[in-house]
Amino acid sequence: MDGITQIYILWIIYLIASVLFVVGLKMLSGPETARNGNLVAALGMGLAIIGTIFIHPGKEASAMKLGLIFGGIAIGTVVGWLTAKRVQMTKMPELVSMFNGMGGACAALISLIEYPHYADSPKRVLLTITLGLLIGSISFSGSIIAYLKLNGTLNKPYRLPSYNIVNAVLVLITIALIIAILFVPALNTYPVIFGLLALSLLYGVLFVLPIGGADMPVVISLLNSFTGVAAAFGGFLYNNQVMLTGGILVGSAGTLLTIVMCKAMNRPLFNVIFGAFGGGTAAVDTSTTGGSVKDISTTDLATLMFYSKRVVIVPGYGLAVAQAQQIIRELETILEENGVEVKYAIHPVAGRMPGHMNVLLAESNVPYEKLVEMDDINPEFPTTDVVFVVGANDVVNPAAKTNPASPIYGMPILDVEQAHHIIVNKRSMNAGYAGIDNELFYNPKTSMLFGDAKKALTDLVNELKTM
Amino acid sequence: MKELIHFLGENIELLYILILSIFVGIEVIGHVPSVLHTPLMSGANAIHGVVIVGAIIVMLDTADDNYLGLALGFIAVILGTLNVVGGFVVTDRMLEMFKKKKK
After folding, report:
1. Dihedral (CA of A110, A115, A118, A121) sign
2. Residues of A with CB below 8 A from B16's CB?
3. How many contacts, defined by CB atoms under 8 Å, are there between A and B?
4. Which structural domains are found in chain A, ordered by start?
5. In this complex, do A373 and B47 lie within 8 Å of one another by their Cβ atoms?
């Protein structure tokens, strides 16, 4: 086959792959088709990869290079597959963040390797390479920080003094450096490129570090779209259509998803990135609430629930951490058998990512229709006998409505305080993930059930079994 | 100015792809229920693993004696594959659960 026919075949493969990406993404956004959509997109990816390896025109590929490529793919496949299969579902947001960082690093490496080959090219090519490096590196280091924050290694927002100014200055220096590389030939050298790499990595760290844990889903989604854009720059560099479409698709879809998530929390993206959350402001808030909390015993709670008509469970990340998804399902079954209507109220940002809680509860076979979204369940709270809050905190914090000084002010919450009884299961009186106190606990209608969620729920289920 | 016009003109097809892809990306996920936000983000995460194609091209274009280039390219291929395979598998795991309870 002659060269040009080969290239055309590759282009056609890329076209098919791009269409499969679009169709896959579309299918992913409907519950019925989502799983097949994922497979469709994966098929497109497989086509693009195989096509590139075997048809990409260029130097004769030596056996060594092909060996390295297949070796790399084999290692990546085995490690990626095993990690993804073995990870606990509670740890999934970290994992998505980690994989995202890998993609960013891949894009940055491509720019690093290609730079010497294109150093004398027109400015637009250099710009593509430097921007790919910049965004890929930010995405990489930012994702790693997000990963460390989510898995609890970095559990406090670290804030340099006037970090907004520091970050802004860093951005300006980085942009200036890119312009310098483009227009000052003396600076168009490898060491300066490494300087740019270092600055970008540093910026990624400083960008994510001050952002509080509750905003981490938004950050991951944003970094996700960053990596998409970095991949698209690779597409520009190589005139490679599939990288371009794939990257831009994720870039725009990811940006939209980020905005949708921000809307769910009623926090403008600007505040997420530049505003304070948790930490400093939390200390002020703590002093404003106070009063006494009352306990409830397992027996009393079992009786209360047993004679209720409607119970709404508000699950939070604490439930998942305690691995209590199964036992809460058991609680639901027992109550239903005794004629109690049980529903789950799912806040848009329950868990660590939007939809995370649905995934976790689905894992323990909770029926889909029992998971009720915030807007649908809120009107039902006044007729609910018992609201059982398990391991959730910020999403039921009335301060979001009543206290303009609160960092979560304006976030839509579950109106649990309208129910007749509110039972909160917590390990201790510690503040929630966002680091702010919750006056719900001091509400006269609220009783606290202290203890590890799994143990407390097991006791509760055992108690109910005897009734 | 002339440079800019030439730049746009020479890359007009890529610009079409760029702009239409932006709209497709926005349109395609416009009405996603919040239940699916996480799987969707994860699926999109896997799709930007298409950067692996770039890593493979780097490897194919790098000279056989450019060991540093080959080494970095090798790492890039591994990282890109991790992104792709890990991304799709973890998404599938999330969605598998949605399917089960539907019966």
Report:
1. positive
2. none
3. 369
4. 94-277 (no CATH), 293-465 (3.40.50.1220)
5. no
Residue B97 to residue B103: CA distance in whole angstroms: 11
Spatial separation of the C-alpha atoms in residues A119 and A34, rounded to whole Å: 44
Q: Could you say which of A300, A375, A385, A394 is catalytic?
A: A394
pLDDT tens digits, one per residue of A30-63: 888 889 999 999 999 999 999 999 888 766 678 8
CA–CA gap between residue B36 and residue A8 (Å, rounded): 37
H helical segments located in A322-373: 325-337, 356-363
* H/E segment holding residue A387: strand A386-390
**Measured between alpha carbons, how far is A137 from A204 in angstroms, rounded to an integer?**
7
Cβ within 8 Å of A, B 62-81: 62-64, 69-70, 72-81
Check CB contact of B47 with chain A, cutoff 8 Å: yes
User: Which of A109, A128, A373, A375 to probe by mutation at the B interface, max B CB count within 10 Å?
Assistant: A109
Q: Which of A14, A60, A106, A141 to mutate to test the interface with B (most CBs of B within 10 A)?
A: A106
Task: List CB contacts of A376: < 8 A, sequence separation 6 or more.
Answer: none
Q: What does each of the 467 residues of chain A score in pLDDT, given as a tens digit?
A: 677 888 899 999 999 999 999 999 999 888 888 899 999 999 999 999 999 998 887 666 788 889 999 999 999 999 999 999 998 877 888 899 999 999 999 999 999 999 988 888 888 889 999 999 999 999 999 999 999 988 877 766 666 677 778 888 999 999 999 999 998 888 888 899 999 999 999 999 998 888 876 678 888 999 999 999 999 999 999 989 999 999 999 999 999 888 887 877 767 777 777 765 443 333 334 434 456 778 888 888 888 898 899 999 998 877 877 778 888 889 999 999 888 999 999 887 777 666 778 778 887 888 878 888 888 889 999 999 999 998 888 888 888 888 877 767 777 888 888 898 999 988 777 665 556 678 888 888 888 888 888 888 899 998 888 88
Task: Tell me the one-letter amino acid at A78.
Answer: V
Cα distances from A425 to residues A230, A318, A384, A433, in angstroms, run 44, 9, 18, 15
Please give the single-letter amino acid code of residue A81.
Answer: W
